[in-house]
Amino acid sequence: MGRVVVEVMPKPEILDPQGKAVVGALPRLGFTHFTSVRQGKRFELEVDGPVTPEILAAAQEAAVKVLSNPVIEDVVRVADIEADAAATITSEGLA
């Protein structure tokens, strides 16, 4: 069984009221390092079998046609979760 992650964010020119609310709350909670927040959406799509290039292409198409609103959102990431995690571990020198 494989899993694909799809991440969608508001386009830069679109107002993000949720992000503004979060960035306003952070300093009140002691988190003073952050100057901006954009809130997006994350989807995890499960498939039978391994994640192949064809599966990733289908996930990209679904992301553009169904999971996002292309007028106000960008699909910023479509990736095999397991391969992505392995790459992160390797790049951090943990593998």
From TrEMBL:
The keyword NADP does not apply. The keyword Magnesium does not apply. GO terms for cellular component: cytoplasm. It comes from the Bacteria. It catalyses: N(2)-formyl-N(1)-(5-phospho-beta-D-ribosyl)glycinamide + L-glutamine + ATP + H2O = 2-formamido-N(1)-(5-O-phospho-beta-D-ribosyl)acetamidine + L-glutamate + ADP + phosphate + H(+). InterPro entries: PurS, PurS-like_sf. It is an enzyme of class 6 (ligase). GO terms for biological process: 'de novo' IMP biosynthetic process. One of its GO terms (molecular function) is phosphoribosylformylglycinamidine synthase activity. Its EC number is 6.3.5.3. Keywords: ATP-binding, Cytoplasm, Ligase, Nucleotide-binding, Purine biosynthesis. It is found in: Cytoplasm. Pathway: Purine metabolism; IMP biosynthesis via de novo pathway; 5-amino-1-(5-phospho-D-ribosyl)imidazole from N(2)-formyl-N(1)-(5-phospho-D-ribosyl)glycinamide: step 1/2. Part of the phosphoribosylformylglycinamidine synthase complex involved in the purines biosynthetic pathway. Catalyzes the ATP-dependent conversion of formylglycinamide ribonucleotide (FGAR) and glutamine to yield formylglycinamidine ribonucleotide (FGAM) and glutamate. The FGAM synthase complex is composed of three subunits. PurQ produces an ammonia molecule by converting glutamine to glutamate. PurL transfers the ammonia molecule to FGAR to form FGAM in an ATP-dependent manner. HAMAP family: PurS. Belongs to the PurS family. Part of the FGAM synthase complex composed of 1 PurL, 1 PurQ and 2 PurS subunits. This is Phosphoribosylformylglycinamidine synthase subunit PurS. The gene is purS.
